[in-house]
Amino acid sequence: MKSLYRRTIVGTMLTVAMSPRLALAKDNEMKIECSFDDQVFAITLDDNPSAHDLLSLLPLNNLSITDYATNEKIAYLPRKLTEAGAARFGGETPGDFCYYAPWGNLVFFYAGYRWSNGLIRLGRLDGGIAPLMVRGTFSLRIRSLV
Hints:
Blueprint: H1 2-24, E1 30-36, E2 39-45, H2 49-57, E3 60-68, E4 72-76, E5 96-100, E6 105-109, E7 119-125, E8 138-144
Antiparallel strand pairs: 1-2, 1-8, 2-7, 3-4, 3-8, 4-6, 5-6, 5-7
């Protein structure tokens, strides 16, 4: 009986000790802010090596964002990101923020797309795709919100 009582106490203490960490997990999300023209939007990054590598480059102030095809905007980085941990993913949807390793560019999807070899999802736009609907080529700034 004493052993069961001790286990219950220890288990409760561990749960209480971990609760603040669980509550803070959302506060520890990796977020960036992108701005071009008069559009400003946030992106929540995935926890992967490519997203961490992107964070190491920030802030970026001299990028150019432009329309590509009929479903995305792209911006070339000053150097390529790591491809460590890259893998096929599913659930492709407008609002995805990706890195296309063969060309070394960021991809902001505003319409449907399918995964292709070399595409690494970095995160998702917060609040929808409306900022990406502005057509043209603009100066893009990216900064960390963490």
